[in-house]
Design brief:
This protein is an all-alpha fold. The protein has helices at residues 2-13, 19-38, 50-66, 70-81, 92-113, 117-138, 142-145, 149-172, 176-185, 192-204, 209-225, 233-253, 257-272, 287-306, 310-325, 331-343. InterPro entries: Spo22/ZIP4 (IPR039057).
Amino acid sequence: IPVLHFLVTELEKSTWENKALLDEVVTILNTEEVALNKANPDEPNNIFSVTELEWFAKTSYNIALKSAKPAHLEHFAEKCQHQQGLKSNFSFSQHYFLCDFLKTVRIIEDIHKETNITEKAKLYHEIHKITKHFREQINTHQTEISRTETEHQEWLSKYRIILALDLEASIFLNDWTTVSIIVEESSAIIDEKLSSIFLDRILRSEAPITDIVRTVKELIRTLHGSPSPHLNKTHFRQTLPRYLRCLFQLSLDAADYHLAESVLDQALVLARDRRPESSRSLYLYPSDEIQWLSTVAFNRAVDFYLASADADCQRWAKKAITLADLDDCDTLGRLLRGKFETLT
């Protein structure tokens, strides 16, 4: 340990860039790991004290945290995860999760710099493997790693980052089943920032439109039913029109007119709540969203008319006009009503 302590001190002086010193530290850690692996797990550990094992683990993590090279990072993070013999006064699970988190964040830096698609895919697979383990274990060990409210909030923040990065990896790998699982899993801890990141990642993907539509719909449903105390319900109601706008346009692009019409119906219900006489008048459906949605819906009605789908035309046009009439300015309602009369 004195030798390792000296090398770490020298590493710090070199701003963690000295490869020769890093290699020496790796050699010592490898020797320590071999010694521990040879020990009988059923017998007391007489090689290193608990204090020394804790120091080995924390030192490995700190080197991983400060090392500028991702290759060094991953090696040291693995070492600090493989310490054995730590007792209850040291949170082994917490340390393990920290290493998973650190590896994930640092590998994602490489991914965003990588231009080769094949190499990106390899790195995303690695991200997915690490984050999957983190997600599987985090709830089981929540009590152990969150002994105070501050620790609890810190781990929730890391958990959200892990979910966001795993969603990014799954989208890149075209694993939309896992994307759906991640969205559903987030329900208990989701907040405005995470939901916004999810929506952005989904919309920016180059996936088939049907996958995007389905996942946006799942995200809205998750937000609707979320028990998360971190999701401000008032804020959600204020941002819901943006989500509905996205889903409406996506469903039209996918020619899923049944879904688009159900979104239009939901918007009508929410827009009625903005009227002054409504008991929920504190919530206002944005005027610009009403105008956009009613205009696009009416244009769709015209398309139905041109396709001789008279029943669909009548239904969509009436809903578009009803929605426009709910706006504070009735100019659009009169305009659409006049256009509708020319169709009939």
